[in-house]
Write a structure and sequence with these properties.
This protein is about 30% helix and about 20% strand. By secondary structure, the protein is α+β, with helices and mostly antiparallel strands. Strands 1-2-3-5-4 form a 5-stranded antiparallel sheet, covered by helices on one side. Bound molecules: guanosine-5'-monophosphate.
């Protein structure tokens, strides 16, 4: 799938629409999900133009891959939900149609602040 430069997260990255930012560095942006499913529900997205995890795995460079994985941990630490300073959390990425992906820019959901519950409905 070609990357749609007008998807909602691309617009957030360009600051064309606002977000409630948690963290930002060279590789990632993290912000609160607009429709939280758990007590804490945030998103971590890469700054590069990747539609999903398959695209990212195939096309991101090693620094981008490291930056995204480390970014998730930095955000979890900031929110107090990591194993370092909290009780843990769940990371989830929906991929394409069967995964139920709605926004076609790679993103990881982080759920926490309470027991997250059943893995799949
Ligand atoms: P997906 O189903 O693609 O994995 O998840 C997309 C997520 O993006 C949903 O949880 C949805 O609530 C969130 N979302 C959609 N539009 C916006 C927005 O404009 N701002 C924020 N912060 N989150 C959004």
């Amino acid at each position: 799938m070609t990357y749609d430069k007008n998807n909602i997260f691309a617009k957030i990255l360009r600051a064309e629409i606002p977000c409630e930012k948690i963290y930002e560095d060279e590789f990632v942006l993290s912000f609160y999900d607009i429709n939280p499913q758990k007590k804490i529900h945030v998103l971590v997205i890469p700054k590069g133009e990747f539609t999903d995890l398959d695209d990212f795995s195939n096309n991101a460079n090693p620094d981008e891959i490291t930056g995204l994985i480390k970014g998730i941990n930095i955000v979890a630490n900031k929110l107090g939900i990591s194993t370092k300073n909290g009780k843990g959390y769940r990371v989830l990425s929906n991929i394409s149609e069967h995964g139920g992906q709605e926004v076609p820019h790679l993103h990881f959901h982080l759920f926490g602040g309470e027991k997250v519950g059943k893995m799949v409905e």
